Amino acid sequence: MATTTVARPSGAGTSRAGTARRVSALLAGVAVLALAMAASVMFGSRTTPLGDVLDVLAGHGDPYVTSVIESRYPRTVLGVLAGVCLAVAGTLMQGISRNPLADPGMLGINAGASASVVTATAFLGATSGAETVWWALPGAILAGVAVYAIGAAGSRSGGLVRLVLAGAVLSAVLYAYIQAVTLSLPKVFDSYRYWVVGALAGRDMEVFWAVLPFAVAGLLVALPLAPGLNSLALGDESASSLGANPAVIRAAGLLSATVLSAAATAAVGPIAFVGLAVPHVVRAVVGVDFRLQLVFSALLGPALLLLADVVGRLVLRPQELMVGVVTAFLGAPALLYAVRRMKGTS
Amino acid sequence: MTTPQLRDHPAPAPAAPVRTGGHLRIGSALALPVRRISVVVALVLLVLTVLGAVATLSLGRLGIPLDELPGAVFGSAEGKNRFVLGRLRGPRLVTGIGAGAALGLSGALFQSVTRNPLGSPDVIGLASGAGAGAAFFALFLPGSPVWLGALLGAALAMAVVYVSTGTGFRNPGRLVVAGIGVAALATAFTQYVVYAVERDNATALTAYINGSLAARSWDHAVTIGLVLLVAAPLTALVSRRLEMGEMGDELAAGLGAEPRSTKTWAVLLSIVLSAGAVSVAGPIAFISLTAPQIARRLTRGTGPHLFLSALTGALLLVLADLAAQQVPWFDNLPVGIYTMAIGGLYLGYLLTREWRKGNL
């Protein structure tokens, strides 16, 4: 699969024109994210003009508008956090597995986290949003390991389709379990309904602070991996001769991706396709260098998630559509596009 | 690839050289080649389905006692029995049998076309597409025929899969991944539709997404009956050509069964059958995946096993729905959740087996 995207040696491509292009792309990425954040604070069941928002931020806004903004900003902040986590995790997974279809949602990680949270809520008495983080994490890791174990067992050819299928199988079984438990226990259903469908609404800053350490830890592992991922893209042998250890890079990358997806899922519920779609867009914009890919994923991921959230607020006004539904709409076409470009897997 | 000189001399119709065993003779004009094991398996499946149906009608607090059951079914039912048979469980049971048979047939047809167990309507997004169409027609266009929505949704989903693989239905890897994408898209659409109309009705949402047989009426049973009545004879016509197709496209063409048109017909029939089942029961997962595979294993034979797949599908859905009604702790879960759990495990088993053989 990776033969289509041969990485440039990390020193190449640093001509002046290339640098200028990257800087402008970086600025554009920051601008898009800023716009998405502004839109996320402005739009709701009623639109707040940008001027009013700026007044509130400056500390002298109308008290009513202030309270509106205060109720909206945790959503924006959580969206940024979850978007960064999902997109970076997707980029890592696609880089490691050299698999343009890798996504925490498709590989069962989201389902694992959800099943774990539902179990904890139903049978172990977990209640608060912050507490769920600790349950989502082991579930996500277990599911990730299981999918890789099934999908990679005896694999000779990278096992692209196998991973996706193993993820689909695990997700189906876990989804059935989640449904069975939540539908049988109305109390669990009520408290976890929104969590399970993936929504940014109705969460508070407590969740953000609980998830933040995991997200930061995941990112701290991910960013230094970028040069290693670049050499990994040349193939294991070339990577070894460049001084990288493929096994270590893969293990660290997978660990980081799993922790990041678990953090995102714990924060906002299972949201599919952000981790799948964003890396494709990023590759099209900045090319194959993973140092740039990771940074841009961290910009475009939250932008996509926040915009999807805004769209979800607007299409059913004054009600809301969960962001997970919107990202599926936006992301599935990206998946189909990737399938069209798949090379002879049979 | 056609070989004209062979097409001028088609193989004599009754000859079925690969088969062993006797023929089923109807009068002196018609002799159907039938393997003895297929007949035994069909009888066993039939008996099990009847047992499942009896259990469905008689178990539980409202069940019709066993000694009153024959009288109620074949004679006339009175009082509580009349209500249970005519309103509560009768339509549900018949709809389940019909939908299961349709799903089994639909899966057998599609798997025969793709020559892959994974090329099954519920893996590649056909059922989800039908579910999305059905939800859209039922909720946004009240009064419109739900089956039409299911049909359009299924056809649209298959068209998207066909186009986005770039290689039609040939490459199983691409087919499955594109199908998973289309299924996700269709499910998201269904969620949107249900949330837009029945926002706080969570049961409606799970029924539309998972498929359910709760609260069926005789209308549902009649609908799926009509679909089967139209599609089953056509399926029987296509079946023999499909069997030839399993020997390879060129050989089939040589025997006069143009593979392209055979496959087109099979896919169309599969879409109609799936859409029919979905319009009365929702996108019930994994019946059309598992039924043909089980039928194939039971007879240890080749070929699409259309009739046995239909029987197996009916049996599976009746048993799953029996569980949905009678398992004590999970009170009245949609039947689709049971089939998803069990079918998911079966799919996992199937995958590891295919991988060991190196087929995928």
UniProtKB/TrEMBL annotation, chain A:
<feature type="transmembrane region" description="Helical">
    <location>
        <begin position="247"/>
        <end position="278"/>
    </location>
</feature>
<feature type="transmembrane region" description="Helical">
    <location>
        <begin position="207"/>
        <end position="226"/>
    </location>
</feature>
<feature type="transmembrane region" description="Helical">
    <location>
        <begin position="290"/>
        <end position="308"/>
    </location>
</feature>
<keyword id="KW-0812">Transmembrane</keyword>
<feature type="transmembrane region" description="Helical">
    <location>
        <begin position="132"/>
        <end position="153"/>
    </location>
</feature>
<keyword id="KW-0813">Transport</keyword>
<protein>
    <submittedName>
        <fullName>Iron ABC transporter permease</fullName>
    </submittedName>
</protein>
<dbReference type="GO" id="GO:0005886">
    <property type="term" value="C:plasma membrane"/>
</dbReference>
<dbReference type="GO" id="GO:0033214">
    <property type="term" value="P:siderophore-iron import into cell"/>
</dbReference>
<feature type="transmembrane region" description="Helical">
    <location>
        <begin position="105"/>
        <end position="126"/>
    </location>
</feature>
<keyword id="KW-0472">Membrane</keyword>
<feature type="transmembrane region" description="Helical">
    <location>
        <begin position="320"/>
        <end position="339"/>
    </location>
</feature>
<comment type="similarity">
    <text>Belongs to the binding-protein-dependent transport system permease family. FecCD subfamily.</text>
</comment>
<feature type="transmembrane region" description="Helical">
    <location>
        <begin position="73"/>
        <end position="93"/>
    </location>
</feature>
<keyword id="KW-1133">Transmembrane helix</keyword>
<dbReference type="Pfam" id="PF01032">
    <property type="entry name" value="FecCD"/>
</dbReference>
<feature type="transmembrane region" description="Helical">
    <location>
        <begin position="25"/>
        <end position="44"/>
    </location>
</feature>
<dbReference type="GO" id="GO:0022857">
    <property type="term" value="F:transmembrane transporter activity"/>
</dbReference>
<keyword id="KW-1003">Cell membrane</keyword>
<dbReference type="InterPro" id="IPR037294">
    <property type="entry name" value="ABC_BtuC-like"/>
</dbReference>
<feature type="transmembrane region" description="Helical">
    <location>
        <begin position="160"/>
        <end position="178"/>
    </location>
</feature>
<dbReference type="InterPro" id="IPR000522">
    <property type="entry name" value="ABC_transptr_permease_BtuC"/>
</dbReference>
UniProtKB/TrEMBL annotation, chain B:
<feature type="transmembrane region" description="Helical">
    <location>
        <begin position="146"/>
        <end position="163"/>
    </location>
</feature>
<keyword id="KW-0812">Transmembrane</keyword>
<feature type="transmembrane region" description="Helical">
    <location>
        <begin position="37"/>
        <end position="59"/>
    </location>
</feature>
<dbReference type="GO" id="GO:0022857">
    <property type="term" value="F:transmembrane transporter activity"/>
</dbReference>
<feature type="transmembrane region" description="Helical">
    <location>
        <begin position="265"/>
        <end position="286"/>
    </location>
</feature>
<keyword id="KW-1003">Cell membrane</keyword>
<dbReference type="GO" id="GO:0033214">
    <property type="term" value="P:siderophore-iron import into cell"/>
</dbReference>
<comment type="similarity">
    <text>Belongs to the binding-protein-dependent transport system permease family. FecCD subfamily.</text>
</comment>
<feature type="transmembrane region" description="Helical">
    <location>
        <begin position="123"/>
        <end position="140"/>
    </location>
</feature>
<feature type="transmembrane region" description="Helical">
    <location>
        <begin position="306"/>
        <end position="323"/>
    </location>
</feature>
<protein>
    <submittedName>
        <fullName>ABC transporter permease</fullName>
    </submittedName>
</protein>
<dbReference type="InterPro" id="IPR037294">
    <property type="entry name" value="ABC_BtuC-like"/>
</dbReference>
<dbReference type="GO" id="GO:0005886">
    <property type="term" value="C:plasma membrane"/>
</dbReference>
<feature type="transmembrane region" description="Helical">
    <location>
        <begin position="93"/>
        <end position="111"/>
    </location>
</feature>
<dbReference type="Pfam" id="PF01032">
    <property type="entry name" value="FecCD"/>
</dbReference>
<keyword id="KW-1133">Transmembrane helix</keyword>
<keyword id="KW-0472">Membrane</keyword>
<feature type="transmembrane region" description="Helical">
    <location>
        <begin position="217"/>
        <end position="238"/>
    </location>
</feature>
<feature type="transmembrane region" description="Helical">
    <location>
        <begin position="175"/>
        <end position="197"/>
    </location>
</feature>
<feature type="transmembrane region" description="Helical">
    <location>
        <begin position="335"/>
        <end position="352"/>
    </location>
</feature>
<dbReference type="InterPro" id="IPR000522">
    <property type="entry name" value="ABC_transptr_permease_BtuC"/>
</dbReference>
<keyword id="KW-0813">Transport</keyword>
